[in-house]
């Protein structure tokens, strides 16, 4: 999946998957008789068709999620140190791909943050509407750092960026904007919310203190 787009896929078992920009989904043409297994890189939202006789597994960086019929989001981009698994409805569990450690179950409204470097998991309560806002055509920024926001925007609008002052990277923003808005509109909102300014040089966006 290239930058600047999203895509909907219906698998052979009627499971529906939405792929965010710069994401890949690997899946067989036909699932095996005893299980359904896919893998992702990037971000995807799943609506898994229930089938008690064939468990559904999603592999991503360092972890595997077992699905029991549900709606959930996995964010596992190669340039991020954390894999985010958010459960909106139903039941899922996750464990490490190397099978070390136990199985961790999530309830709706929980997010598991798997740190790849430390191989540990943190759990927290989240507003799932914020996490899955991209699937409904919006960027939703709620307690997100500028560094995280710029990574998401650069994938969607396809640009490079530089934050000139490292202290700005951890500034937290709140807001919401349609994903199909002109990029200038998004910049304007961020400038109004924070003490920052944007300039461009070719395909590069430069973020500086105001």
What would the keywords be for this entry?
210 residues; mainly beta; twelve-stranded mixed sheet; three-stranded mixed sheet; 3 helices; 17 strands
Structural account:
With 210 residues, the protein is mainly beta. 13% of the residues lie in helices and 47% in strands. It has 3 helices and 17 strands. The strands form 3 sheets. Strands 1, 2, 3, 4, 5, 6, 7, 8, 9, 10, 11 and 12 form a 12-stranded mixed sheet that branches. The chain starts with 6 loop residues before the first strand and ends with a strand.
How is the secondary structure organized here?
Layout: E1 7-10, E2 16-19, E3 24-26, E4 36-47, E5 56-60, E6 63-67, E7 71-76, E8 82-89, E9 92-96, E10 104-106, E11 110-115, E12 120-125, H1 128-131, E13 138-145, H2 146-157, E14 160-163, E15 172-178, H3 183-193, E16 196-201, E17 204-209
Parallel strand pairs: 4-5, 14-17
Antiparallel strand pairs: 1-2, 2-4, 3-4, 4-7, 5-6, 6-9, 7-8, 8-11, 9-10, 11-12, 13-15, 16-17
């Amino acid at each position: 999946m290239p930058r600047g787009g999203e895509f909907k896929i219906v698998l052979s078992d009627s499971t529906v998957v939405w792929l965010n920009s710069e994401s890949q989904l690997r899946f067989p043409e036909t699932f095996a008789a005893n299980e359904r297994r896919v893998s992702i890189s990037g971000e995807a939202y799943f609506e898994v068709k229930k089938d008690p006789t064939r468990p559904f597994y999603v592999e991503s960086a360092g972890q595997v999620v077992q699905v029991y019929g549900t709606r959930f989001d996995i964010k596992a981009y190669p340039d991020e140190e954390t894999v985010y698994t958010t459960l909106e409805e139903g039941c899922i569990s996750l464990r490490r791909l190397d099978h070390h450690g136990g199985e961790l179950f999530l309830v709706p409204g929980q997010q598991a943050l798997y740190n790849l470097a430390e191989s540990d998991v943190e759990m927290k309560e989240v507003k799932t509407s914020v996490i899955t806002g991209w699937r409904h055509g919006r960027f939703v920024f709620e307690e997100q750092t500028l560094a995280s926001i710029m990574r998401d925007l650069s994938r969607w609008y396809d640009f490079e960026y530089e934050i000139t002052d490292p202290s700005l990277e951890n500034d937290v923003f709140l807001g919401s904007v349609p994903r199909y808005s002109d990029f200038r509109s998004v910049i304007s909102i961020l400038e109004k919310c924070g003490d920052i300014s944007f300039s461009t040089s070719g395909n590069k966006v430069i973020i500086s203190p105001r």
